[in-house]
Write a structure and sequence with these properties.
binds aspartic acid, 2 domains, 36% helix, binds adenosine-5'-diphosphate, binds magnesium ion, 424 residues
């Protein structure tokens, strides 16, 4: 019997009515496909944010352990209610918390990675004909409750699909697939019928919230066909994330569609992402000597700070300036470490700027198409948006700009590459 994993996000299960609608999607799938079905759910609506607000009313400095105990409760409400709704619809269902479902993680709070999944209980429930409803975003490590980082339910679903060797994993959300950029920023976005794992991984890591980056990484490693689709239009095929979309023929055997698929595959830019959680740190008056950059960045990495875009200025009077960005959650910690490093290497001073964002274009086709960077910079220049820093990889270009211009930057770049015209 085939195995299917379905995941429903917060908005999809936001009200009792929505939970009943999700139960209908699950039971219809079970009926139509006669499959073994695992359903992973997030907390209802803004429950996780509300739990953070509650926490803030009690303390500014929660211990990570208690914070995970608190935040994991949201998903537990959803699994119980969804199981009840499925049972009311006449099907057998059983809810499992992350730890009951056998999800073991690293022993880290608030952003644990899944290490292994013991699927024994899930398989037993399959044998009993039950739809298994699992709480996303949570696991267990050495008997302690852990969580996987915000948006982590996608990762729970894909990891379960990998462990169960599922036939596919469908991520149901509040948009009808992966778009050329966030539809909350640009009115007329294009929708992608398919996207390569690598492109999706870049977009997700660069701020496109639609999939948790780690979920894409796992889907790629285990070659899980991953589909992003709408909970409101479950019959729509949404976007398929696959290995090699151009040669892949999963989508259609129809010649016209194949041709348009190939043309789209050749587009240099497939999507634009905005990461609003960036901070820029500077270390100024750094002695320009061999080994200094190594000292700065190895000290930072030693203290668990992940650095992203790095720029070093041309040396003047034997001194230089090194600027880099970090995720805003790590900015204060990074600044404290940088102050210590500055003293030890006799740099003049350090600075922090929390008002920057990162705008990126992504596309596997840009490897052999010249002019992508120039087009992006022209769009920004024409809109008087100052680029503070630039970084590139084979399939992406990122610019750091002031946060007040982030959305405008996304809009003008999206337009410059004609992305509203993409696909359906
Ligand atoms: P869920 O609660 O279902 O996990 P999320 O809010 O985490 O949903 O992710 C869906 C949201 O991701 C959409 O509402 C949309 O605003 C945002 N998003 C950002 N970038 C994209 C993109 N490129 N394509 C589609 N949605 C995107
Ligand atoms: N409920 C968690 C969050 O809001 C996990 C998730 O929705 O994926 O981040
Ligand atoms: Mg999400």
């Amino acid at each position: 019997m085939s195995i299917i994993v379905q995941k429903f996000g917060g908005t999809s299960v936001g009200t009792p009515e929505r939970i009943k609608a999700v139960a209908e999607i699950c039971t219809q799938t079970k009926k139509r496909e006669k499959c073994n079905l695992v359903v992973v759910v997030s907390a209802m609506g803004d429950t996780t944010d509300d739990l953070v607000t509650l926490m803030n009313q009690v303390t500014d400095y929660p211990t990570p352990r208690e914070l995970d105990v608190l935040l994991s409760t949201g998903e537990q409400i959803s699994i119980a209610l969804l199981s009840m709704a499925i049972q009311k619809a006449g099907y057998e269902a059983c809810s499992l918390t992350g730890w009951q479902a056998g999800i073991s993680t690293e022993s880290v709070h608030s952003k644990a990675r899944i290490k292994s999944i013991d699927t024994k209980l899930i398989k037993k429930l399959f044998a009993e004909g039950k739809i298994v409803v699992v709480a996303g975003f949570q696991g267990i490590a050495e008997g302690e409750i852990t969580t996987l980082g915000r948006g982590g339910s996608d990762t729970s679903a894909v990891a379960l699909a990998a462990a169960l060797k599922a036939d596919r994993c469908d991520i149901y959300t509040d948009v009808d697939g992966v778009h050329t950029t966030d539809p909350r920023i640009v009115d007329k976005t294009g929708r992608l019928k398919f996207i390569a794992y690598d492109e999706m991984l870049e977009l997700a890591s660069l701020g496109a919230q639609v999939l948790h980056p780690r979920s894409v990484e796992i889907a790629k490693n285990f070659e899980i066909p991953l589909r992003v689709r709408s909970s409101w239009k479950p019959e729509d095929n949404g976007t398929l994330v696959v290995n090699n979309p151009v040669s892949d023929d999963i989508i259609s055997n129809n010649f016209t569609e194949r041709k348009s698929k190939m043309i789209e595959g050749q587009r240099s830019v497939r999507g634009v992402a905005l990461d609003r959680k960036q901070s820029r740190l500077s270390i100024i008056g750094v002695p320009d000597e061999p080994g200094i950059a190594c000292k700065i960045f190895s000290e930072l990495s030693h203290h668990g700070v992940s650095v992203d875009v790095i720029v070093q200025c041309v040396s003047q009077d034997g001194h230089t300036e090194v600027d880099f960005t970090v995720n805003r959650d790590q900015a204060e910690k990074a600044k404290q470490e940088l102050d210590i490093i500055a003293k030890s290497i006799k740099a003049q001073r350090t600075a922090i700027d929390n008002s920057v964002v990162k705008v990126s274009v992504v596309g596997a086709g840009m490897i052999d198409q010249p002019g992508v960077a120039a087009k992006m910079f022209k769009a920004l220049g024409d809109h008087k948006i100052n680029i503070q820093m630039i970084s590139t990889s084979e399939i992406r270009i990122s610019c750091i700009v002031h946060e007040s211009q982030g959305e405008e930057a996304v809009k003008c770049i999206h337009e410059a590459f004609g992305l509203s015209e993409v696909n359906s």
